[in-house]
């Protein structure tokens, strides 16, 4: 069980290092202050202004950094992706930002789902067996009632629920179906 925790920490450290290297490269370029995730609208406005000129000159590098940051937040279920949605619209335009954020949300939720199954299942089942059993019963009841009502969708796919709350639900469903 501890090997899985070490594996998750290794993946997290590698992703953090890769994101830091990308942002350090950008910081060495045009931006005059260290880059960090915005926590409010004022910080978002400052970040958008700092990145706009760089994005015009180096669109590929700015796009790579944005995608890496978005996937990082989604993959590790770190709150704050909504501010990155607004930043995408400011940097890339509303339509490109919408398509980009939709795709990145789906990919990030899928990564979170895979990380959860690979590293988190044993911990949750070991430390919360009663909660897992309760959720299994609820999912089974919902699935049976969905089939009996002939509902067209059963929410078992991470791609059907690409948004952050769906990511958590999707992770739980993976544990419940495989337990």
Describe the structure.
It is built from seven helices and no strands. With 179 residues, it is mostly helical. The chain is elongated and about 55 Å long. The protein starts with a helix and ends with a helix.
Question: Topology, pairings included?
Answer:
Blueprint: H1 2-29, H2 41-57, H3 59-75, H4 81-92, H5 94-127, H6 129-148, H7 164-178
Helix pairs in contact: 1-3, 1-5, 2-3, 2-4, 3-5, 4-5, 5-7, 6-7
Short account of what is shown:
By secondary structure, the protein is an all-alpha fold.
Residues in helix, %: over 70%
Strand content: under 5%
Q: State the order of secondary-structure elements, H for helix, E for strand.
A: HHHHHHH
**How many individual β-strands?**
0
* SS element count, helices: 7
Q: Which overall shape is indicated by the principal axes computed on the Cα atoms?
A: elongated
Distance between the termini: 16 Å
Mean pLDDT level? 77
Low-pLDDT runs of 5+ residues are 147-167
Which properties best describe this structure?
179 residues; mainly alpha
């Amino acid at each position: 069980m501890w090997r899985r925790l070490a594996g998750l920490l290794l993946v997290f450290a590698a992703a953090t290092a890769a994101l830091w290297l990308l942002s350090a490269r950008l910081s060495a370029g045009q931006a005059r202050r260290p880059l960090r995730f915005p926590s409010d609208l004022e910080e978002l406005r400052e970040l958008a202004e700092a990145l706009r000129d760089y994005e015009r000159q180096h669109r590929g590098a700015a796009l790579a950094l944005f995608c890496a940051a978005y996937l990082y937040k989604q993959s590790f279920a770190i709150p704050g992706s909504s501010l990155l949605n607004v930043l995408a619209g400011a940097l890339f335009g509303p339509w490109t930002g919408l398509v980009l954020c939709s795709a990145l949300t789906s990919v990030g939720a899928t990564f979170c789902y895979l990380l959860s199954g690979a590293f988190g299942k044993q911990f949750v089942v070991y430390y919360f067996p009663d909660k897992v059993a309760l959720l299994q019963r609820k999912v089974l009841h919902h699935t049976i009632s969905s089939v009996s009502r002939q509902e067209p969708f059963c929410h078992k796919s991470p791609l059907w629920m690409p948004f952050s709350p769906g990511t958590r639900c999707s992770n739980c469903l993976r544990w419940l179906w495989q337990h």
